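hey can u check if this looks right to u? its 256 residues, i copy pasted from the old doc so theres a chance i mangled smth
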Amino acid sequence: MNVEQNISELNVLEQDYGIRSYEIDAGGRLSIPSIFNLLQDAASNHALRLGVSVHQLLEQNYTWVLSRMMLKMDAFPTWRDPVRIRTWPSGIQTVFALRDFEIRNGSNTVIGGAVSAWIVIDADKRRPIRPTSFAEQINSVEDMRAFDHPLNKLPKIDAPDVENRFFVRYHDLDINQHVNNVKYIEWLLESIPGFGRKGFALKELELNYLGEAFKGDRIISMCRKDNPSGTRFSHSIVREEDRVELVRAKTCWEQT
């Protein structure tokens, strides 16, 4: 995962964070939703610097939506640990604008990384447009990746082992007036049998965002165990009213 290149002339943002008490989980480690919040914050700040932030695109009636993402973690920071997020645009593929991330600890060692695919949509029609019109501003670093992984569409799951229900509240929404992508991660984690059990940590989390949920929607988060040891799971999140699938995901865990 370590990208050993001179970044002085590359279009890369580096941002430092200190892990705050409300960002850790019951096990004392940086929580998984908090990791995604840090990545999203760094990506937003970099997009602002490039002139293509959500606020800047909304002036043209466009906005960014996260479509696919994969996170890999080797270690987790704890309270007050320093963390550095490095992020950069890594190319354009059809309708997707790619963005990569590195997560480094206080010793500048890479402890995690992510690859992601975003789409630009018309804010009124909710339809994607090709991001090529923003290519010059995005200025991708196409020969540098956090890790190699094709962000393909995940398979649909059948016969889930667990179903949990949630209700979309106002505080689940983001500036696009739909459920924030991190909220779906909270819902899918809550549906894992034994989630939070001592001695296990997330190794990989891959996501496909397929649809939008809004205030007042009723949500079903489904989970299926994919191996006998209970370290691999498939996930699906649907809207209860019309059974429209909103998210597919896979998680992989390891014993610590």
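Residues 87 and 101 are 4 Å apart (CA to CA).
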